[in-house]
Design brief:
The structure holds 2 protein chains of 2 kinds.
Chain A lengths: L7 E2 L5 E2 L2 E12 L2 E12 L3 E5 L6 H8 L7 E6 L2 E2 L5 H6 L2 E3 L12 H7 L9 H6 L3 H19 L15 H14 L4 E5 L7 H18 L3 E4 L3 H7 L2 E6 L2 E6 L1 H6 L1 H8 L5
Parallel strand pairs in A: 5-10, 5-11, 8-9, 9-10
Antiparallel strand pairs in A: 1-2, 3-4, 3-6, 6-7, 11-12
Helix pairs in contact in A: 3-6, 5-6
Chain B lengths: L2 H34 L6 H16 L6 H8 L12 H23 L8 H23 L16 H11 L7 H23 L1 H11 L1 H6 L4 H27 L8 H12 L4 H21 L1 H4 L7 H12 L14
Helix pairs in contact in B: 1-7, 1-10, 1-11, 1-12, 2-4, 2-5, 2-10, 4-10, 7-8, 7-10, 8-10, 11-12, 11-14
Classes of the chains: A alpha/beta, B mainly alpha.
């Protein structure tokens, strides 16, 4: 069993820390439809945590609860040791939770660099007059932000398209730019909504590598939703399995794979 | 130099300056349209409201005097003081920010994600409401506005051109001041939107709401900011037009002249609003001068609209607007 405070050591020998985010008995309804039913799980510092499940299982709803787009009717969200009141998406982002979207939400009219720089917005502190006049603290701040943005652009190997307007990029690269923008905020928790959806095998492998590298290099805590079972099992340290809004499994990839309920959900068994 | 050419030069210069005033109004439209996709029909009335408020404060008028007197049977009209122009302008700016906040909280926030046509209809409602409100607050009579801007013929230009061409140009000092202020305003707006955090956030919101939320931008705050900026631009336009032709209801109709400007310049471009304004200003004056006598004059009333119509047919996104590209 897991130790609540100490964390654990992964199979590949990485030390995982304490709980960053904890969901306690979350229930989310849309009218009469129960999207999430009484689900609890935690996300620990430095780990890659996956939420998987068949179509309509409520994975995306869960991610939207974490990022503040949905407010659950019941249950508590705990972030970094304190209970989070109902919070709006932009406040969640300011608290250090960055995310990407399944169907990509980028600023299509801006260049790649400008997109990544918007990820730094929450970090800017100097006054508006200094910024407009490009003087004093603002100049230093801008330089520092720019350096971080460039470092991330290098890291994700998108230097060659720095100045290209995002609207002109192919799908796979857009996904990578979105990841770069999320990383630019130096998030304490990074949420990835189906980062591999719609990609070909090569792009998937690239994305996998980047996710692992990001986690390794920056120690970023990552929670991701994914369809592709093979990918998830290779990538993640622990997996939550959802089906019809309920949690049916939680544990390391091997534990989950051996879970009869999970096998049923994926292979299909009559629900009665 | 032939007389015709000299006249044409004078007319061009005057046209440029009239164009600056058109551009000032168009700028307010562009600001709101860019950041929220709302075509703000009330922009002209906002200029009227701003100018009325400014005059009212400067003259020490009691707001809602008629209403108060009708209800309480009192006879208050004036506080009996005069507020200096600069202070009155500052107070008016605060009022316009308050108005922006009220519009966002009471109207626009409840219409998020509605069709553009519905938002447009809401701004029509807002226009009529504001028109009534400004009458109720400050009375509907024609008022003179004098914030100390120089007016009348610029003698230096008159004399210099007389020496050069044997004919003195008539250039109004107010137009020169308006041009300078407009230039400063546009420079400040561009610096704001390019280099500041709030400006970047504004451009981000204009591009994609969901993405903006996910990088920590409050949509509400940005919209209040944008309406405040539009209110400020409306105030500047109101001061210029009000000084020129008095503060009265017809001030709100200058918004109609901004429409062709927007069609030329594109709804999404600040430089476009400027260039569009200049083209319309010069175009209508020169057209009147050159073609007017041949077809019986009064072309200034329709020239701008016909030009806009031609643009709509051949280049609907305007000169500087974002290209309308649809992926198939």
């Amino acid at each position: 069993m897991l130790d609540q405070t100490e964390g654990y050591v992964t199979e590949d020998g990485r030390q995982i820390g304490g709980v960053v985010m904890e969901m306690k008995n979350i229930t989310l309804r849309f009218g009469g439809v129960v999207a999430i039913k009484d689900i609890s799980f935690d996300i620990r510092e430095g780990e890659i945590r996956a939420i998987i499940g068949p179509n309509g299982a409520g994975k995306s709803s869960m991610l939207n609860v974490i990022s503040g787009f949905y407010i659950p009717q019941e249950g508590e969200v705990w972030f970094r040791g304190s209970k989070r009141p109902p919070t709006r998406p932009y406040e969640v982002a300011q608290q250090g939770i960055a995310r990407t979207f399944q169907n990509i939400a980028l600023f299509e009219g801006m260049s790649v660099l400008d997109n990544v720089m918007t990820g730094r917005l929450t970090q800017m502190k100097s006054s508006i007059f200094h910024q407009a006049l490009w003087r004093g603290k603002a100049e230093a701040e801008e330089t520092a932000n720019r350096e971080i943005a460039e470092k991330i652009i290098d890291f994700l190997e998108i230097q060659h398209i720095r100045k290209t307007p995002v609207a002109r990029l192919p799908y796979g690269l857009k996904k990578r730019v979105e990841l770069a923008r999320a990383l630019a905020a130096e998030p304490k928790l990074l949420l990835l909504d189906e980062p591999m959806a719609g990609m070909n095998v090569e792009e998937k492998e690239d994305m996998c590598r980047f996710i692992l590298d990001v986690n390794d290099e920056f120690g970023t805590t990552i929670a991701l939703i994914e369809h592709d079972m093979g990918v998830v099992m290779d990538l993640s340290d622990r997996v939550v399995v959802m089906d019809y809004g309920k949690k049916i499994g939680d544990g390391t990839p091997d534990e989950v794979r051996a879970n009869q309920e999970v096998i049923d959900a994926y292979l299909g068994v009559s629900h009665d | 130099m032939p007389d015709q050419l000299v006249f044409a030069m004078e007319i061009t210069i005057n046209g440029l300056m009239a164009g600056v005033l058109y551009a000032l109004v168009a700028l307010g439209f562009v600001l709101i349209y860019k950041a929220s996709g709302i075509f703000n029909y009330a922009q002209g009335v906002m200029a009227l409201f701003a100018a009325m408020t400014l005059v009212g404060i400067m003259n020490g008028q009691v707001p809602f005097a008629h209403l108060i007197n009708a209800i309480l049977g009192t006879k208050v009209h004036h506080f009996g003081w005069h507020v200096p122009a600069l202070l009155a302008i500052l107070v008016t700016v605060v009022v316009m920010i308050g108005l922006a906040w009220a519009v966002q909280v009471l109207v626009m926030r409840h219409l998020v994600n509605q069709e553009p046509i519905i938002l447009f209809m809401a701004t029509i409602g807002l226009a009529y409401f504001l028109e009534g409100l400004s009458d109720l607050m400050w009375g509907s009579e024609l008022k003179a506005l004098d914030v100390g801007l120089p007016q009348g013929i610029n003698l230096w230009i008159d004399e210099t051109t007389f020496e050069m061409f044997g004919y003195g140009f008539f250039i109004d000092n107010l137009d020169i001041v308006a041009t300078i202020i407009a230039a400063l305003l546009v420079t400040a707006l561009i610096a704001f939107s390019q280099y500041t955090k709030q400006g970047r956030a504004m451009r981000a919101v204009a591009d994609d709401h969901q993405a903006a939320l996910s990088v920590g931008i409050s949509l509400n705050f940005i919209w209040v900011l944008v309406w405040s900026l539009a209110g400020f631009v409306a105030l500047v336009a109101g001061i210029m037009w009000g000084t020129k032709s008095g503060v009265q209801f017809s001030l709100s109709l200058i918004a109609l002249k901004a429409l062709p400007v927007l069609m030329l310049g594109g709804f999404t471009s600040i430089p476009g609003a400027i260039v569009g304004g200049l083209i319309i200003g010069v175009g209508e004056k020169l057209f009147e001068f050159l073609v007017g006598p041949l077809i019986g004059g009064a072309t200034e009333n329709w020239f701008a609209y016909v030009l806009a119509l031609i643009f709509l047919v051949f280049r609907p996104q305007g000169l500087f607007g974002e290209k309308i590209i649809e992926r198939v």
